[in-house]
Amino acid sequence: MEILKTTGLKKYYGSGAGLVRALDGISMSIEEGEFAAVVGTSGSGKSTLLHMLGGLDYPTEGKVFVDGKDIFALRETELTIFRRRNIGFIFQNYNLVPVLNVYENVVLPLELDGEKPDREFVREVMETLGIYERRTSMPNQLSGGQQQRVAIARALASKPAIVLADEPTGNLDSRNSKEVMGLLKVTGEQFGQTIVMITHNEALAQLCSRVIRIEDGRIWKDGENPAQNCGMGARRQNPVGKRTGETAARNVQGGIRHEK
Question: Which domain holds residue 180?
Answer without folding.
Answer: 32-59+75-235
